[in-house]
Design goal:
The chain is mainly alpha-helical. It has helices at residues 33-41, 46-52, 58-70, 72-82, 85-90, and strands at 13-14, 25-26. 46% of the residues lie in helices and 4% in strands.
Length: 100
Amino acid sequence: MTSPAKKLQYPYITFNPEIAQGSPVISGTRITVRTIAGYYQMGMKVDEILTTLPHLSPSQVHSALAYYFDHQKEIDAELDDSSDEMKWSQNVVQQPNQKI
């Protein structure tokens, strides 16, 4: 007999449409899972991430990484989108006296 799929819980991860456009964030902060995943992809270890973001606890960073690994495709797409220079340059509104 198989048991029903258990919904995974991430105790330090929340979603709020008013913060980071609803992307998953670390509870009580505006730090997105995408940010933690980006640091991880750059080769940073948990201790290095904690040095960079000293207001976070190891549990918060590990929870963000657990969420990332369980939703890697979704978070990687967010990372790609946020680093798309062409997309961001198209959204720039040039001011009359601004030099490019």
